[in-house]
Design goal:
One of its GO terms (molecular function) is macrophage colony-stimulating factor receptor binding. This protein is mainly α and 175 residues long. Helices cover 63% and strands 5% of the residues.
C-alpha cells in the first residue's frame, strides 16, 4: 500500500503536479461537509438580517476567477492552497467577529474555525518566503490591519460560497 502511494507521489512530482497531503484531504472533506448548501443557507443567511453584510478587505474575497487568473500566471497549486487557507480562515474570523456568543450561528462558525486551525497545522511548515511573491503579498494584505480603507461589504453566505467553490477547484483532483 505504501509503495503504491509513493509511486503515485513520484508520478505526480514528475508531472509537475503537487499532491495535497493526506491530512489536508481529510480536513477539506470535513470542511466540505460543514459547508453544505443547507448549512450555509441556514447559518449564514436565515440567521442573519436581510441583506446583512460583513466588511472585508478586497483581498479577503477569493473567487474561482481569481484562482484561474493566478494559475494562468503560473502560480503553483501548493501556493494557491496556501492562499485559499489564509483567505478563507480570515473570512470565517470576520464573520465570527460580528456574532455574539448566543447567536445561533456561533457554534457553526466555531466549528469552522476549529477545522481551519487544524488545517493551519498542516500549513505551519510553509513560510511566505517559500511561495510565489504574488501569493506572499496577498497573504500579507489579508493579515494587514491597516487596510481599513480597502474594505467592501459582502454577505456572510457569499464568503463561504466562495470558500467552498475555490476549495473544490484546488482539492478536487489531488484528493
Amino acid at each position: 500500500m505504501q509503495q503504491s502511494y509513493a509511486a503515485v507521489l513520484c508520478v505526480l512530482a514528475v508531472l509537475g503536479l503537487e499532491a495535497a497531503a493526506p491530512g489536508e484531504c481529510e480536513l477539506t472533506r470535513l470542511l466540505q461537509d460543514k459547508l453544505q448548501y443547507e448549512m450555509r443557507l441556514q447559518y449564514m443567511k436565515h440567521y442573519f438580517p436581510i441583506n446583512y453584510t460583513v466588511q472585508v478587505q478586497y483581498e479577503e474575497v477569493l473567487r474561482p476567477s481569481n484562482i484561474t487568473r493566478l494559475r494562468n500566471g503560473t502560480v503553483s497549486e501548493a501556493a494557491l492552497r496556501y492562499l485559499w487557507f489564509h483567505v478563507s480562515s480570515q473570512a470565517v474570523l470576520r464573520i465570527r467577529e460580528v456574532l455574539p456568543e448566543k447567536h445561533p450561528s456561533w457554534k457553526y462558525t466555531q466549528e469552522l474555525c476549529r477545522l481551519f486551525d487544524a488545517l493551519g497545522k498542516e500549513y505551519s511548515e510553509y513560510r511566505q518566503t517559500d511561495v510565489e511573491a504574488v501569493v506572499a503579498d496577498l497573504v500579507k494584505l489579508v493579515h494587514s490591519a491597516g487596510a481599513e480603507s480597502r474594505r467592501k461589504p459582502v454577505r456572510p453566505k457569499a464568503l463561504l460560497d466562495n470558500c467552498l467553490k475555490v476549495m473544490r477547484m484546488l482539492y478536487g483532483a489531488p484528493c
